[in-house]
């Protein structure tokens, strides 16, 4: 197939060798249904145009197919072979699809309408092959054309094409390429008079390959290799360090890298003053009698993110007979496809003027647009305008697995993590007889879920064929598998270099011996007398010896370890802490991605006065990234993300540079005190059962942890004796505290003391087998202890940490975001700790709020909706998280690979289940066949079919 008709012209060779088909397997023409050009109301076309033999595409097919037939039959000069005509009743078509002025062109060869075939030279015989099918490429038709030329009886068991063998085209093409290579190498050299040994032709090799396939079955699926990263790092890395200070620049308002405009627009849509005002008071409060109103104008979704699009009406209802076929229970509210996954193509603001409700006045401050209309159309008596202008974000979404686009308003779209497909629906699909489903990409692409779900719409495919419920289930299963595959991929975007001053990277280890006082080396001997003030009385040999001793002592200093490390576990040895620090922050000698990125040496030069500090304005370089694709979501630098662990899993008792989790606020304590009094009286057991037994559990310990990502960078970590790159994210950590929680005076006073520590390593979050390094340092001798160390080079006071231009998003109702690190510090974590984006007020979404309110009002527990509460941080991120593991180079590769992988997986799944069912039927037939009557006839019991079991849902990976 091809996207367009603008291919290079193809000419018939000079003195062609014409090849004619003497037989055909197509008794009558088999044209496609849509052969009339019709332009629909959207200016699009979808029809098949028949091409004659002299069309450019026809000549290309005839030349290349003729060349393959000539190679198979051993015709001299195969490059001159050309098909004189198609087989009888075959037709060549160009599929025009898309916009009328610029349609897409796909080439098809239609034939094989069976069940009869015509043999022009002999007689008419019976054709027992498979039903008619179109050939979509030259390589698909080549084995079928060779079979037509070689088999006079047209025995379909001798045909090796993909439609007669149900094999993958890539396997068939590889056999054809092998045959071509043998035919080329066996061609005799002119003038030598030697004939090459006879070799098998294409037809024989194809038959041999088919027989091997039927004997051995398809290739076994490649088993997934265990990921070494998971085996070596069962725990993840996390640490706290001082915020890296950028190198001073001329203007603090000018960035040294190009900020992605798309990133700025996406971040300001959520982290700005206007965005916070639009968020309303959310999230949904279960104590309220009705859900909070939807405020609108929330651009949560970003270009190329995977989201859920709500289908019109009730969606695509699954009839009860389908569940019966799958031997599954049927639930009317769960056997329905009401959401379809898709990719965001674009987002635009749409305005709509609506009349006000009767006996109501419009408040001019409702929306900005309402104010503008009021200022222009307001009458002299000060009355408000008669119409209200409402604005909504409208997203253009490309539905997955099908060739369809849809424009939907913001209230009809949900984040990918905010919706779960009912498990009973996926169980029904996986347990259906696989003969009813078809995962062919072209067939699935013709399905249109909007037309299927929308009442009154024509339930027809693009080709004009009627859409069935099995078409819907096949397309939906493929779309679900694509999203599952894409969710396992991640990628980095927009790399730039960050120049900074390392945190004490130029200071020697505290355990290292002090640098000895270096004598000043006199200038070289010359006729010029030494300068006044220069060192006198030292010979050149003495100066060289002194410099050698100083260099030897300096070489003992370990400049490749992290300094000022504080430990969380008192029993941890300094070596263990140092190994954990290197695992989290990388090898200090690299300070980035390569050895050139470490800072300049700080050892004073021999000619410099003791105590002077070298000037260092260049700093170190670190490779950073502006964003990443994290499964279905797009995450930018400065984004506010949820972390996997709960607040109680991160320094639950506090640690240096990490505050203790906040306790309950005043209002929560008042409820607790009242509950305690009720407990003493032995009343209201229903209320007491909903409260924890420990007061602190009502605080932040059971909620999620957040990070504002200030940097995405790579570190070098030593594994298996090699330096390997691993990604890290750094930024301020936040917890979700009660809105009336008050800080303890002791915690605020300790901030100053904790600020002296460089970073903290939480060993509970570190790998169980950290990288081994040599962190030992030599101890100073007694003479060195007695000698006071010389003054080391000093540095200017730290610069203030760069502040982000974006605000902290609005927290959930009755909560606040509380930083848990001291100012000027940041946490460094592995990317595997990121659960996903934070969606302010997501539980106020109209598709979530009403069902959530009704479910809680009916008595369901809050525990049943952990996945929704997690999106707002009321539960830890691991309750609803994206955990991608496979890296891809860009977003396009992520989607394309997910599409190909999903199609291959479902096709293999379908073929495997069909084989299992056929084998089960064969076994049941053998067991139930018994001779009946004297004629030796055999019959099958009617009840034997009930003994066959359908595959279970666990065999299909579509969740």
TrEMBL record:
Annotated Low complexity bias: 600-616
Biased composition (Polar residues): 359-383, 765-783
Ranges of biased composition (kind: Pro residues): 510-522, 787-809
Residues covered by the Cryptic loci regulator 2 N-terminal domain: 82-164
Compositional bias ranges of the Basic and acidic residues kind: 212-232, 746-757
Pfam family, one: Clr2_transil
Gene Ontology BP term (one): silent mating-type cassette heterochromatin formation
This protein's name: Cryptic loci regulator 2 N-terminal domain-containing protein
